[in-house]
Amino acid sequence: MSDQKPPFSSLPISDPLLPNPPFSLFLTSSDHNPNPNPSYDLLLSFHGKRKRTGVHRKAPLSVIHQPKAPPPPLPPATLEPDGVKNLPVKPNFSDLSEDIIVINKEATNEALTALTAGFPADSLTEEEIEFGVVSSVGGIEQVNYILIRNHILSRWRENVSNWLTKEDFVGILPSHCEPLLNSAYNFLVSHGYANFGVAPAIKAKVPAEPTKANVVIVGAGLAGLAAARQLMMFGFKVVVLEGRKRCGGRVYTKRMEGLNKFAAADLGGSVLTGTHGNPLGIIAKQLGSSLHKVRDKCPLYRPDGKPVDPELDIKVESAFNRLLDKASRLRQCMGEVAMDVSLGSALETFRQVYGDAVTEEEMSLFNWHLANLEYANAGLLSKLSLAFWDQDDPYDMGGDHCFLPGGNGRLVQALSESVPIVYEKTVHTIRYGADGVQVIVAGGQVYEGEMALCTVPLGVLKNGSIKFAPELPQRKLDGIKRLGFGLLNKVAMLFPHVFWSTDIDTFGHLSEDPSHRGEFFLFYSYASVAGGPLLIALVAGEAAHSFESMSPTDAVTKVLRILRGIYEPQGIDVPDPLQSVCTRWGTDSFSLGSYSNVAVGASGDDYDILAETVGDGRLFFAGEATMRRYPATMHGAFLSGLREAANVAQHANARSSNIKIEVSPSKNTQSCAALLEDLFREPDIEFGSFSVIFSGSNSDPKSTAILRVAFGGSKRRNNSDGTKADQQHSNKVLFQQLHSHYNQQQQLHVYTLLSRQQALELREVRGGDDMRLYHLCEKIGVKLVGRRGLGPAADSVIASIKAGRGNRRPVRVALRVKKEKGSK
Ligand SMILES: Cc1cc2nc3c(=O)[nH]c(=O)nc-3n(C[C@H](O)[C@H](O)[C@H](O)COP(=O)(O)OP(=O)(O)OC[C@H]3O[C@@H](n4cnc5c(N)ncnc54)[C@H](O)[C@@H]3O)c2cc1C
Prior knowledge:
This is Lysine-specific histone demethylase 1 like 3. The protein is of the alpha+beta class. It has 4 domains: 22-56 and 290-399 and 488-547 and 549-582, Polyamine Oxidase, Chain A, domain 2 (Alpha-Beta Complex), CATH 3.90.660; 83-195, Arc Repressor Mutant, subunit A, CATH 1.10.10; 205-250 and 408-485 and 592-657, FAD/NAD(P)-binding domain (3-Layer(bba) Sandwich), CATH 3.50.50.60; 669-814, no CATH class. The structure holds flavin-adenine dinucleotide (FAD).
């Protein structure tokens, strides 16, 4: 990390922490002008799931989940300025007025501020419900709570260097609202929504002597550092074990130098994607740093170095956006089936069907857009889930994309200050159990604690580099396997002088070869923020993988060829760089990839699964790949650390208050999915690609059964005799279209409910699977759906089949807190 402090010249921008005017939040997609001139006004998919800012993103399949009924509340831990107190006392709401309070005239603006921090305008989050912020969900008390919560948040955002106290609200809120003030304040501070960061007033709240449990944190990236700081503030004793010689993990600012030129190069996370509510924007503000808005202008250059024709650019970009829209609509029709189809196959199918991008130049432009999408997702489009690749879009932070002048290492440096980090401690085993945890590092040294927080990247978990004892629950192992972890690499070059235009921050280059579409497809100019003439070239998609074995000399030679192709015809000499650095995030043993994505077969649920605590509140997980709403980002990693600090504190409080945390079957869809999967391991009858499970032990022909049809994989049967029938059925046609491009070997499962008699009838249909499918859909008239499409009606059938089959272990579990006798 660079410790240099160059004289940065950042552009003045509006306050990044203030929300947009309200109207911008309520624009519908049709209100936007997508991009009048894509060549020069192209908003890029600066990673962080702003896939193509110019495109109208449709609401994804997954909707923001708002629980209808509150789960049993965890005991609220009241928090005093000194940290978390072990007082699991439920706030007394009984004397609350039934009237909606008026705090000031800023309720709408305050709601917007809350929205940017991830709070819905008119309802509670799951976290709040779990924390027990109100005595009952949905009433006037909740409305008042939300007003107070929004007000506290807004007050803190006005001055993020301040430590806000409850007393600051005396005289502002009606006195009968004190319990709600306590509740909102305690929630916001204990969960890291207010009073967090590196401002002196906040640092001063860290107690001189920790009084609480020992927590061993594995990894000193943003997640580990955020968690460590919070836990220290709460009074926990913390040690951070880091395998590298430095902290920051995938945020790494390298100081580059040569011939008296210096620059701070962000080799990992660089762009703060959306500054509204972005906690790293808050840290930057606490450090007194202004952010540099990444300007939208992004000229594109053809493989021969000539600028792309603006008209063609508009045409191809519009076509690309149309295809993305179509893919989005298709998945809506397909429901859960889209989970098993790749975004790449859907886009390619549509491109061919609609005849978009047919000339060579159009194709290379089209491929540039695909590369841009692969960059945003750090993943091959052929491996991204059509259904859920953009599941986090609704949570986009909003606001500008920005660079932090001097590099994000400045954030890391500030966050790591006074945190006890032990470097070059590569963890190979984490043991956890009722007595606590043991974290064992290379060389055999053992670190003991009451709890451990694992923040290593998904690539490290996938690789099995850390042994967990006992082994992690199967559902977590499955989630680790399902989620994708892709690759993005960079070439950073420090030049003797700036030869490119200084009124741009980015420019793109097209490739002739589709398999190299991501190779140096985008350049970032860091000249205005790095302190020197620095250019960074990006390598995404397939090219990012082959880049790992390319020699640095070859890589730089290729980049220079591109730059000279662009600039020399303009009469501009391109000098050799003074220093160059090529990243290898894929072979870096502490990362093994760049960031996570939703691969075919995975969903947003997997992020939640990765975040789940295991071992009765002993082993916790944070990191970008545990952050369903903000995965693959720096702010997501940071927020996951704050989340887990709150979680650790809550479990520690529960334990010290003699509150037992027990597991009970979860009602979530994941649990049903796993149960269904389990049940179909032993179907009651099987024929061709069809399998059936029957409910009830009796043989009542009217009793309900669940039928599953498998497409793809080894069970797929091709029958030629049902072609006519196939074409009559839309389900089948849809599958055929997509499967012709479906290059995954996974099986695709669709389901329906039917009677036992209908299932038996189906078994007797002759002519193979295709005729059976025709019979099922046309004669019986059922609709095949994805697992979730089965709906609640299926839940009771699943439960009764499960019950009928005896005591197989429920696979999906969720935490529930139960007070033991004698506890307070
Ligand atoms: C090339 C690239 C570009 C990116 N661009 C952006 C961007 O523009 N904007 C954005 O928001 N995000 C970006 N990201 C993503 C962002 O950097 C990450 O999401 C974030 O930094 C992850 O933080 P983390 O704490 O979850 O993990 P990490 O930062 O990876 O931290 C985990 C830590 O664990 C350590 N560790 C691993 N294994 C062990 C072990 N066995 N024992 C001990 N320690 C271990 C690692 O060394 C590391 O320090 C980019 C990432 C990359 C790689």
